[in-house]
Design brief:
- With 495 residues, the protein is of the alpha+beta class.
- It has a domain of 85 residues.
- Strands 4-5-6-7 form a 4-stranded antiparallel β-sheet, with no helix packed on it. A 3-stranded antiparallel β-sheet has the order 3-2-8, covered by helices on one side. Strands 1-11 form a two-stranded antiparallel ribbon.
- Strand 6 and strand 7 form a beta hairpin.
- Helix 4 crosses helix 6.
- The longest helix has 39 residues.
- The protein is extended, with a radius of gyration of 34 Å.
- The relative contact order is 0.09.
């Protein structure tokens, strides 16, 4: 009987090793994998650690050129000239009124009066990189921009478990619904004058990674160590390059005099003890009795292969924030044309994803703003008042001629509107059509003044010869053509 029990026990052990997920198994090299408890992101990143991460991210933003490039690309490509609403209420007069009111609101939408709508949108998408989240407090006619560092639990309370009423500055209901936000002012590194803002009047913005998440995590948090490695490696290689390029002379003397020792102790580049620690190129240094100088050879430093290693590290950084290395370092032209197009299309997916998130936030702001305008009697109510189409900036193209041809085909097929096509240039369809009509009218006036008639205005607008395509029978068909008319393909008669 005992032998049977021993056999079953060994069988269970063997089955446990033979089946199941390898990801759950620990080995000598992976002994700690899977041992951490499953907790929410708001518990994993405490307020103290959050402040440290945000501080480190902001320091990189100030001093690291790669991070500065990431910030610039995020604002430039996601927002561009701004994401603009196009009302679609079905009433042209109401649509025009909403557009004019929104344009006036966009000139100075926030309470400080320092940013227009485009700059506000840029700060919103940039905040997720460094603060993790941000939001807008809805006021009477204005909004207040709040970065994530200003949101904390009131009275220094801590969040220790998922059932706490306050989750890193967000008061939640037992079911997990946000009820209010504790928002203060940053003064000398600390949060003061905190106040509770109802969740109804606060629009948060962050990149959600888990379903039960109330605060965002700085997007640069997973790659802070990688960025630090790049900085340290760059600094070490720079020191090696300076040492390799420098030339200094050390003179060894017996019985060094007191004035030499005193002079060396007073030198700005030495420490208080007078030790010879730094060498400057083109300088003569005197060694004291008993001192010996051993020069550390650079041995081929700086390392020319180090560029590939740093590029690999930066690709890891770029993959975390969705920006290819070629864009961060502005060297997209170093690859083939097809490869460059692939990089652009890959990056475009990231940009469109952030644009969609920003449009959802702006949609909430737009609806609240419309309700305020209706309540104030500035805009009349309508059955389809909330219908709106958001015009996002189009993405860059490498081949401009291919871009124009593709846009024309999309426009004919109805896959793109004129607004989509002219968005990269900062115009709306109405502005382009109005300007085009003005150009045609001006060309007709010039034609009449110069040629005595308006018949030649097309030559001024389009001096190239035009042609039609079709079968020989269609083009040469002799139908009765009304006088002064021209028969074109498809039996369409044009004056």
């Amino acid at each position: 009987m005992s032998n049977k029990k021993g056999f079953l026990k060994r069988a269970r052990i063997a089955a446990r090793y033979a089946f199941g997920y390898d990801a759950a198994k620990n080995t000598r090299n992976r002994k700690n994998r899977g041992n951490s408890p499953i907790r929410s992101e708001d518990i994993e990143l405490s307020q103290y650690e959050r402040d440290r991460v945000v501080s480190a991210c902001l320091d990189f933003k100030r001093n690291n050129p790669v991070v500065a490039s990431i910030s610039r690309l995020r604002k430039m490509d996601v927002v561009g000239k701004g994401i603009i609403p196009q009302p679609m209420t079905g009433d042209d007069a109401i649509d025009a009124l909403i557009e004019s009111k929104w344009a006036a609101f966009s000139e100075s939408p926030e309470i400080t009066g320092q940013m227009d709508m485009r700059e506000l949108q840029q700060q919103i998408v940039d905040a997720t990189l460094f603060y993790g989240d941000c939001g807008l407090v809805i006021g009477d006619g204005k909004v207040e921009f709040v970065d994530g560092s200003r949101i904390q639990n009131p009275n220094g309370q801590s969040t220790s478990k998922e059932t706490d009423a306050w989750q890193q500055g967000v008061r939640v209901s037992p079911s997990g619904k946000p009820l209010s936000y504790s928002i203060g002012r940053r003064v000398s590194g600390t949060v003061k004058d905190q106040r509770n803002v109802s969740a109804q009047n606060y629009i948060p913005f962050f990149i959600r990674s888990t379903p039960t998440q109330y605060r965002g995590i700085p997007e640069l948090a997973p790659v802070l160590n990688t960025l630090q490695d790049c900085d340290e490696y760059d600094r070490i290689e720079m020191i090696a390059a300076k040492v390799s390029a420098s030339l200094s002379v050390v003179i060894k003397r017996e019985g060094a005099s007191d004035w030499e020792v005193a002079s060396r102790m007073d030198a700005e580049d030495q420490d208080g003890g007078g030790n010879l620690e730094q060498f400057e190129p083109g300088r003569f240094h005197y060694a004291e009795p008993g001192e010996d100088i051993s020069v550390i050879s650079s041995n081929g430093r700086p390392n020319v292969d180090g560029i590939q290693w740093v590029n690999y590290l930066l690709r890891k950084v770029g993959s975390s924030v969705g920006i290819p290395l070629e864009f961060m370092l502005m060297e997209i032209g170093g690859s083939s044309f097809s490869a460059s197009q692939g990089v652009v299309l890959q990056y475009q997916q990231t940009v469109e994803s952030y644009q969609n998130s920003l449009i959802r936030m702006m949609g909430r702001l737009y609806r609240r703003w419309l309700l305020q305008q209706v309540a104030a009697g500035e805009i009349p109510s309508s059955e389809h008042l909330m219908r709106v189409r958001w015009q996002r900036p189009s993405f860059r193209w490498i081949n401009q001629s291919a871009q124009v041809k593709a846009d024309m085909e999309y426009y004919r097929a109805g896959a793109k509107s004129l607004d989509d096509i002219v968005a990269p240039f900062g115009y709306t369809a109405d502005e382009v059509l109005l300007r085009k009509a003005q150009n045609i009218k001006h060309a007709m006036d010039i034609s009449e003044n110069v040629f005595g008639s308006t018949d030649q205005w097309r030559e001024l607008i389009n001096p190239f010869q035009t042609s039609i395509s079709g079968s020989y029978g269609e083009i040469s068909q002799e139908d009765e053509v009304p006088e002064d008319d021209v028969k074109t393909e498809g039996n369409i008669w044009l004056k």
